[in-house]
Amino acid sequence: MNAKQLAAEEAVTHIEDGMIVGLGTGSTSYFAILGLAARMKEGLRIQAVASSQGSEDLARQLGIPILPFSDIEAIDVTIDGADEVDENFNLIKGGGGALLREKILAANSRKFIVIVDDSKLVRRLGAFSLPVEIIPFAYELTMRNLAALDCKPTLRSSEGKPFVTDNGNYIADCAFGVIESPAELSNRLKSIPGVVEHGLFVKMTETVIVGSGEGTIAYL
Ligand SMILES: O=C(CO)[C@H](O)[C@H](O)COP(=O)(O)O
């Protein structure tokens, strides 16, 4: 079993009958969705909400019921991956482009479990370019305002065209280098008109499960 799968399968053991589960996005969350479906085959009863169309489609294929948001008050547990986790449990997310929906799910969850392989652990965030979701209108100006925060923004592309999120927006991947203060940068990014959301998750989780290539699982 690979490191991502190990972390994902451990996270799934936290899910109990009757829970509403938030489904993350990405290759680690993929294993969590498979793990939930496997537990449902053994009798677990859950309902879910998803952070991307891809995760929703996968869940439906596997028979995991997806609820409309109008039917829920809160999410019991969300399980999701991350691109970087620092020593204070701050995260960079959005490598898969789903950061906006992922943050909405995490912010509305009683518990947010982050699952990663050990390559994602860093002392300080920033080696991974920070994904920032921006609206397409005047995105060139928004990118200039991002660059003024002392980073190098690159418009994410796919097959020669701008990558478009599930929300119809673009992603600017911003190379900051070491991020000294995630909380301060979060506020500065949110103050730029045209920025919808960014991939800094500041103090949003208390549970990080790490799988390693040696087959071990650790809770941070
Ligand atoms: O934030 C995400 C998607 O927007 C993912 O959780 C993050 O990119 C990690 O991906 P993976 O599990 O494939 O390594």
- Rg is 17 Å
> What fraction of the residues are assigned to beta strands by DSSP?
25-35%
The structural class is alpha/beta
pLDDT < 50 stretches? none
Annotated CATH topology of the largest domain: Rossmann fold
Q: What distance lies between the first and last C-alpha atoms, to the nearest angstrom?
A: 21 Å
- Number of helical segments with 4 or more residues: 6
Order of helices and strands: HEHEHEEEHEEHEEEEHEEEE
Strand order of the largest sheet: 2-1-3-6-14-15
Q: Total domains, how many? A: 2
Major β-sheet annotation: 6 strands, mixed
The portion of residues assigned to helices is 25-40%
Number of strands: 15
Q: Can you identify the CATH class of the largest domain?
A: Alpha Beta
CATH architecture of the largest domain: 3-Layer(aba) Sandwich
Integer average pLDDT: 97
Bound molecules: ribulose-5-phosphate
The shape is: globular
Keywords: Isomerase, Membrane, Transmembrane, Transmembrane helix
Pfam families: Rib_5-P_isom_A (PF06026)
Active site: 102
Protein name: Ribose-5-phosphate isomerase A
Summarize the structure in words.
- The chain has helices spanning 3-12, 27-41, 53-61, 99-107, 139-147, 182-190, and strands spanning 20-23, 47-50, 75-80, 84-85, 91-92, 109-117, 130-134, 152-155, 157-158, 161-162, 170-175, 195-198, 200-201, 207-211, 217-219.
- The protein folds into 2 domains: 3-121 and 203-213, Rossmann fold; 130-196, Alpha-Beta Plaits.
- The chain is α/β, with parallel strands linked by helices and 220 residues long.
- It starts with a helix and ends with a strand.
- Strand 4 (84-85) and strand 5 form a beta hairpin.
- Bound molecules: ribulose-5-phosphate (5RP).
- Ribulose-5-phosphate (5RP) binds next to helix 2 and helix 4.
